UniProtKB/TrEMBL annotation:
<dbReference type="GO" id="GO:0005634">
    <property type="term" value="C:nucleus"/>
</dbReference>
<dbReference type="GO" id="GO:0004126">
    <property type="term" value="F:cytidine deaminase activity"/>
</dbReference>
<dbReference type="InterPro" id="IPR050610">
    <property type="entry name" value="APOBEC_Cyt_Deaminase"/>
</dbReference>
<dbReference type="GO" id="GO:0005737">
    <property type="term" value="C:cytoplasm"/>
</dbReference>
<keyword id="KW-0378">Hydrolase</keyword>
<dbReference type="InterPro" id="IPR016192">
    <property type="entry name" value="APOBEC/CMP_deaminase_Zn-bd"/>
</dbReference>
<dbReference type="GO" id="GO:0003723">
    <property type="term" value="F:RNA binding"/>
</dbReference>
<dbReference type="GO" id="GO:0008270">
    <property type="term" value="F:zinc ion binding"/>
</dbReference>
<dbReference type="GO" id="GO:0016554">
    <property type="term" value="P:cytidine to uridine editing"/>
</dbReference>
<dbReference type="Pfam" id="PF18772">
    <property type="entry name" value="APOBEC2"/>
</dbReference>
<protein>
    <submittedName>
        <fullName>Cytidine deaminase</fullName>
        <ecNumber>3.5.4.5</ecNumber>
    </submittedName>
</protein>
<keyword id="KW-0479">Metal-binding</keyword>
Length: 197
């Protein structure tokens, strides 16, 4: 996995890529890839843990970003054993297939006292029923150790401050619309989780 061009460790995402890929439109034309910005931090200082951060994207016609990232994190947990708090900022919510792999992986993570929060910019529903069922399955894992939800301006601001190469760049074109779009996306998510789709 090391050296994989789809996994960038300790590297910020380019501003233009973030602006295009993370715009939280209801209908987002041309966004065929999933990007996940990740930060895996030791829960306490002075242990054997080491921070792992960067971003990952899916391989076109290949592994989805989440699958690549789970594998990358598994390697890290094996070689740098500690308890970690992880945050993922995702351009799309997981598809049904990824959710079915994420659920057991998350359960295992929680058993080992790790924590993960997942924020997604848009809800992926290409294969509607399957993808929505996947989100419901993920919702069943929600607990003290695992949270998921829609990205709002707070999360976008965090990305711009910490994980996007934004110095000297103009404000995001859609920043002023982020929270109102996020409210709509949150309503959609709530309907899905209440099984009203
Ligand atoms: Zn997927």
């Amino acid at each position: 996995m090391a050296g994989d061009e789809n996994v960038r460790v300790s590297e910020k995402l380019h501003f233009n890529t973030f602006e295009f890929e993370f715009e939280n439109l209801h209908y987002a034309e041309g966004r065929g890839q999933t990007y996940v910005i990740f930060d895996v931090k030791p829960q306490s200082e002075g242990g054997r843990g080491e921070r792992l951060w960067g971003y990952v994207r899916n391989k076109p016609l290949g592994d989805h970003a989440e699958v690549i990232l789970m594998s990358k994190i598994n390697d890290h947990l094996e070689t740098h054993q500690d308890n970690y708090t992880m945050t993922w900022y995702m351009s799309w919510s997981p598809c049904g297939k990824c959710s079915s792999e994420l659920v057991p992986w998350l359960q295992n993570l929680l058993k080992k006292q790790h924590k993960l929060t997942m924020h997604f910019s848009r809800i992926y529903d290409k294969d509607r029923a399957v993808d929505h069922r996947g989100l419901c399955d993920l919702q069943h894992v929600v607990s003290n150790g695992f949270q998921m939800g829609v990205m709002g301006q707070t999360e976008v601001d965090t990305c711009l401050a910490e994980y996007v190469e934004a110095s000297g760049c103009p404000p995001l074109k859609w920043l002023h619309m982020t929270d109102s779009n996020a409210t709509q996306m949150q309503d959609k998510l709530s309907s899905i989780l209440m099984n009203r789709f």
